[in-house]
Structures are given as C-alpha cells and as structure tokens.
Specification:
This protein is an alpha+beta fold. It contains four helices and seven strands; from the N terminus they run αβααββββββα. It has two domains: about 35-100; about 100-180, Pleckstrin-homology domain (PH domain)/Phosphotyrosine-binding domain (PTB) (PH-domain like). This is PH domain-containing protein.
Length: about 180
C-alpha cells in the first residue's frame, strides 16, 4: 500500500471508531439546541458496570490462586463481548451529550427521536402551533395545533437535564408570545 492509501484507510477507521460531533450549521446563532444529556449518565454507568464485570471474568478465567484450575477456565472469550458492550455504551453516552433532541429554530420546533434521527425527524412549524403547554413538573411539552387543544404533539422532556427545561419553556412561550403581538 502507498502512503496515500494508508492515510485514507486510517481516516476511515478513525471515522468508524471515534464518534463525530454535530454537523456544522449555517446560522447557529438563530437556534437553540437541547441534547439528551440527562440520559448520558445512565449509559456511562452501564459502561463502567460492564467493564468491571469484564475485568472480573478475565481475572476468574485466567488466575488460579494456587488451585488446580481457574474458576472460569475457558470463559475468557466473554471479555471480548464485554469490551464491545462497554464501547457501545460509551458511544451511546457520547451521542446523548453531543446530538440534539429538540432544536428551536426560526422555522419551528425540530424533534429528533433516539433512533434513526435523520429519517424520523419531526418538524412542527411555528405557523402550525396554536398554543403550547408545559406540565407543572416540566416533564412534558405539548404543542397544540388548534385553539380547542384537540390535536398536537407531546414531547417528553425527561431526556433534557432539569436545569435546562425552564429555558426551553421560556423560549417556546416567548416565541409564541412574540408571534401574537403585532
């Protein structure tokens, strides 16, 4: 292989292993991004737990401590599965902290699902929203399409850290209020 091909291969491997951050935006000053940062600690904790279990299995499958055979002799291959799971949980945690869950833009509210975000993205335009409500505990956002409040979108705010939920509420209600005043 030539040096140029090695560099391309190295870049492909790096792109596959190291998660990329959010894509650049044309006008980032005009939008507010809210991530799933409240869900990330769960995935990081799962990663630590799986790693600890993997180390325990490795020790129990390779060390004999003066006995005839290790307690889990022949089970060392489970460590590979544990390390892969650990890596996947870290990737999920990083994804939760880096990628947006809800974006407020001049066009409307963009809601990204956890899986297949690019394919299943839901955009609610400000012109569609008649009213917005937030539950008293700030765990749900309801965007109503009619004044009678019979249709709309309900978005859970649990993935957003509690300290940030009031910012989303103020931004949505402020945008609707600004739209109503001439």
């Amino acid at each position: 292989m030539q040096d140029n091909e090695k560099e391309k291969l190295g870049e492909k491997v790096k792109a596959a292993v190291i998660p990329r951050g959010p894509k650049s935006i044309a006008e980032p000053e005009k939008e507010l991004r809210f991530t799933r940062a409240a869900q990330a600690p769960l995935f990081f904790a799962l990663s630590v737990g799986v790693f600890a279990a993997t180390v325990a299995v490795f020790i129990l499958s390779t060390q004999d401590w003066g006995m005839d055979d290790p307690p889990l002799k022949g089970w060392w291959w489970l460590c590979v599965i544990g390390l892969v799971l650990c890596y996947l949980f870290i990737r999920l945690g990083l994804r939760c902290t880096r990628h947006a869950y809800i974006i407020l833009s001049p066009l409307g509210v963009e809601i990204f699902p956890f899986f297949n975000a690019a394919k299943n993205l839901q955009v609610v335009y400000w012109s569609q929203v008649a009213d917005a409500e937030f539950t008293p505990d700030a765990k749900n956002m309801v965007l109503h399409f009619t004044e009678e409040k019979k249709s709309g979108v309900i978005a859970s705010l649990k993935p957003i850290p509690e300290g940030r939920r009031h910012l989303l509420e103020e931004a949505v209600l402020g945008t609707l209020e600004k739209r109503e005043t001439p």
